[in-house]
Amino acid sequence: MPIFWRYLLKSYFRILLLSVLSFIAILLVSRLEEIAQFATLGAKPSHLLLFILYQIPYIIPIALPLSSLLASMIVVQRLSQTHELTALRAGGLSLRMVVAPLLFAGAFLFLLTFTLASEVATSSHLATRQMAYRLTAENPLLLLSSAKLAKQKNVYVQMDTVKSGKALKNLILALPNPSQNRMALCLAKKVESEGPFLKAYEVTLLSTIPSETFDHLVIENQQLLHAAAPDFAQALRKKGWRISPDHLNFRLLRSRTQALQEEFGKQIGRQGSKHLAETYSEFIRRLSFGLSGYSFTLLGVAYGLGISRCPSKRRVLYVLALAALSLTAFFLGKEFDHLFLVATSLFLLPHVWIFASSIWTIRKVARGFE
What we know:
This protein has helices spanning 3-29, 32-40, 45-81, 84-90, 95-138, 140-144, 147-151, 229-236, 250-264, 274-304, 314-335, 340-366, and strands spanning 156-163, 167-177, 182-194, 197-209, 216-228. The chain is of the alpha+beta class. The protein has a five-stranded antiparallel β-sheet. The protein is elongated. The model has no long low-confidence stretch (mean pLDDT 80).
């Protein structure tokens, strides 16, 4: 490897590593709510630490492109401000040869980011869901006290917590009964968790028997009621847990796409093919993750170049605005993943803009204009 390549790549990856660590620390703050919810489920300290570590692979695909933008822009600005760029070009190197090491690093980041988003982040995301699911399945009293259950439609929960995850009293629980299209009411004076079972004292169960004229009200009173904790947890959940496309690695996502194509056909606009559109959008989302590693590096290189005596701050503002727009479009694309064409446009159009703008800027600088 040429000395010049080693010099640029060493500076680039040093700044990149420092930026990635900083962004991980910053973006972990945005996951504090989810971490706090998991902690309230009564998780052990070791499980809580593992849950926090599982958040990092989910953050890195976002932190890497932002870090590559900062690293490439700082390195190229340093070359310009110290007149090393002028010396290199005076020595016979073209601008394309000068920025080639950074673009090579951007291509490496493309592969790295795509792999992390497709394989590592999906596995960590699935693992966090499984950890939370197992905790609430083992102890449904934690699920009763969670905010997610209280926010569900047609569900009413009121109780007094005696000991979190262990006992509660004065329970009032109203749930829909899908088999009869009616509501069911459960009242309990006290509920305790004992291993894999629940013990409820002074229980009243109110249900109905539908008929053609009027519903028959059924009231059942029990002094002591035993129930298996997993069965009770399953009854509390509104729906079964469905593995979404962002839980699947690339191979499993391809298998799921093939299965959905056989079921719904290749026309993603048909009624009932929402899941197929989501899987197609997931492929594009992961491709967008990978492209961001290269496009953000190219953006930093293009707008870090300076050949004038008075560098313009508008270039920095333009880069920040373009990066913010790209991230906004990415998150909007995730929200519209059931609309394949809309999601694809939001995922890919910012990269097209970045590529076109960066290449135009580099060519302009190569001709002596800034």
